[in-house]
Amino acid sequence: MSFVFDRQWGDHNERRKQERRNHTKKTVEPIAAAIVPREERKTVGVVFVDDPRIKCCGVNVYYDDKHAVKNVTLDIGRHEIVAMIGPSGCGKSSFLRCLNRMNDSIDNCRVTGQIVMDEQNINETSIDVVPLRARVGMVFQKPNPFPKSIYENIAFGPRIHGLAKDKTDLQEIVVSSLQKAGLWSEVRDRLDQPGTNLSGGQQQRLCIARAIAINPEVILMDEPCSALDPIATAVIENLMNELCADYSIVIVTHSMQQAARVSHRTAYFHLGDLIEVGKTEQLFTRPLHQLTEDYITGRFG
Ligand SMILES: Nc1ncnc2c1ncn2[C@@H]1O[C@H](COP(=O)(O)OP(=O)(O)OP(=O)(O)O)[C@@H](O)[C@H]1O
């Protein structure tokens, strides 16, 4: 009996020691590999994901001879929020605009490389950008509702893309888009009033509803909260969290706090190079590249 008792306690103590060793193993960071030096420009981190929604490979953006985005390779996952951060002029917006060919409207801009959705390179000149921009919607820095009624702001897209069978169908799209954008309860009684009469935060949600109404797969957001107060910003951030159940979201933001709050992965750009991309928590707490560390600790930009 005593033998059994001793053995049990012996086992118990051994187990406790082992648990402590395991615990130590789990909580103490492994000795980090040396941080990548500033001169290195090859992207480090988690560039690829399983079953990506968009696959960017060697993307370059030039404005005349200015090389604004340099050989960027990056996957955007399904149901993923990817934040793009970096100092002013590092190429975040230029890269974002590649994802729905918005750079086409800039005369001196040229984009090279592959941007693949459903095995199709959307950067080929033969691609029709109208249906592409329905699949990859965009929300801009400044809310830009059409000078039309709230209803028409949403109904316009589905109507021109032929997404509604009839008037009832169109009405359903309008209601469900406003619901998904978290605006329905605030505007249900005034759908015929101008969208421009809404507050800034409501206008931005109207623009999100407008993007949703044409059934996109991806929503691009270029500093969507920079014109909003903290309360309206929090509403949009919560909304993003809900929307990623249905869409992939790529957001350019100047706010590291916002990137940390909303995104699953964060991409850090520097002078046109994608320096590092990784799980958001890791990038902000244990960056792999010296330039990322400089930026997040406020030593640069
Ligand atoms: N139409 C243009 N013609 C010439 N150069 C341009 C044009 N648009 C952008 N650039 C340049 O390309 C570079 C990248 O600009 P971009 O707007 O993509 O950077 P960003 O990181 O989004 O900057 P910000 O955070 O200030 O908005 C910058 O040097 C910018 O001056």
TrEMBL record:
UniProt keyword annotations, A-Z: ATP-binding, Cell membrane, Membrane, Nucleotide-binding, Phosphate transport, Transport
Pfam families: ABC_tran (PF00005)
GO CC terms in record: membrane
GO BP annotations listed: phosphate ion transmembrane transport
Region (Disordered): 1-24
GO molecular function, one term: phosphate transmembrane transporter activity
Signal peptide segment: none
Domain ABC transporter, first and last residues per copy: 54-296
Gene3D superfamilies: P-loop containing nucleotide triphosphate hydrolases
Compositionally biased intervals (Basic and acidic residues): 8-17
SMART domains given in the database record: AAA (SM00382)
Keyword hit for Acyltransferase: no
Identification of the protein by name: Phosphate ABC transporter ATP-binding protein, PhoT family
Origin organism lineage: Bacteria, Pseudomonadati, Pseudomonadota, Betaproteobacteria, Nitrosomonadales
